[in-house]
Amino acid sequence: MRTETEAGTGTGPGTAGQVPARVPTTGSAVGYRPTFAEASAVAQALHDSLSGVLLGTPDAVTVAVVAALSGSHLLIEDVPGVGKTVLARALATTLGAKLSRIQGHPDLLPSDVTGITVFAQNTGTWDFRPGPVFAHVVLLDELNRTPPRTQSALLESMEEQQVSVDGVSWPLPRPHLVIATQNPVGQLGTHPLVESQLDRFGLSTSIGYPDAEVETQLVLHHGGRYALDALGAVCDPPQWEQIIETTASAEVVAPVAEYAVALVRTTRSAGTVRLGASPRAAISLIRSAQAYAILSNRAYVTPADVQAMAVACLSHRLVIDGAAGDGRELVRHIIATVPVPQP
User: Are both 39 and 178 inside the same structural domain?
Assistant: First the structure.
């Protein structure tokens, strides 16, 4: 049943109003699940905090918050110097999470990401030394500058929340969020991400160049890296994990789920698409729509929530013929053509 009294009746991000800096202290109790109203309050606090750092880019901020609420990995694709790394650092700070940063470069080895087993002479045993992937938030800057074998080291961690080294599997901290940045394919020294890698990113976004007014504010230190110093946490990892659980319980009725599936299936039959979105993409689309509903101060998902997240969830997963345009425009066209279920 819809629970409008618990999470309000807002229609989009930014409608939750004044929110506390943190969820109530009971949110740290074992087995406790925040209410929809508490989850919405934290979601809005995350959105407000990120908006004060990344100026003039509301869409990118919304996608980053949705990634956190849904537990989805995030790919940020854009040219250098527009704030990709700043967004990742700001998100980790507001989540109260440990951030581990890995700089992508052609000599980066898989063991530089996952860790390595070494022989300890003092004990005569083999010890595992965890790599930087063992963190709640992992920023892999310029992922497409790393060689393919290093990119593949992330496949298990992103899907199964564990790392296997020398036949032993090690669980990763939970929640576990990978934020990868990449410069546009075609720049010198880049390696395009393979389809299986792209499909593990639940969401993608870009930031773009700011307009003149926003760029002036950045020059005057009103945002960007300068605003990170004053940024505080709105929750901690245990509360964050509980909020993800609450988000996953937002109501999704059958017609809305069928609509999301119809959008995904249409990507597979479009004439210019060589590889459409997978069933994993359909699951990700619903999870993102649930997070968008919570951010919009609602405890149930509408077709509009699915539409709002479709481009970010599906476009990076599509393989399109070179001269046929980009994935974002194709997904927008699909949204305009697939019938919307009526209430």
Answer: yes
Nearest 5°: CA angle at 208, between 203 and 211? 140
Is there a single domain that holds both residue 179 and residue 235?
Answer: yes
Contact 314, 24 (CB under 8 A): no
0.85 exceeded by pTM: yes
Q: With respect to residue 323, please indicate whether it lies within any of the assigned structural domains.
A: yes
Lowest mean pLDDT among 42-46, 116-120, 254-258: 116-120
63 contacts 54 by C-beta, under 8 angstroms: no
Phi and psi for 141 in degrees, rounded to 5? -80, 130
Kindly give the residue spans of alpha helices, DSSP state H, lying in the chain: 4-7, 36-51, 58-70, 84-94, 110-114, 148-151, 153-160, 195-198, 212-219, 225-228, 237-248, 254-269, 279-295, 303-314, 327-337
233 and 303 housed in the same domain:
no
Question: In CATH, what number is assigned to the domain containing residue 66?
Answer: 3.40.50.300
Examine residue 14 and state whether it is found in any structural domain, yes or no: no
pLDDT tens column, 146-174: 988 899 889 999 999 999 998 899 999 99
Same domain, 219 and 341: no
Q: Summarize pLDDT for 98-116 with one digit per residue, the tens.
A: 899 999 988 999 999 999 9
| Category of 326 on φ-ψ map: left (φ > 0), alpha (ψ -120 to 50) or beta | beta
Distance CA 143, CA 161 (A): 19
For β-strands 74-77 and 177-182, DSSP reports them as parallel
Q: Which range marks the domain in which residue 92 is found?
A: 32-105+135-143+172-249
Total of domains in the chain: 2
b/e for 78-110, b at 16 or more Cβ within 10 A? beeebbbbbbbbbbbbbbbbebbbbebeeebeb
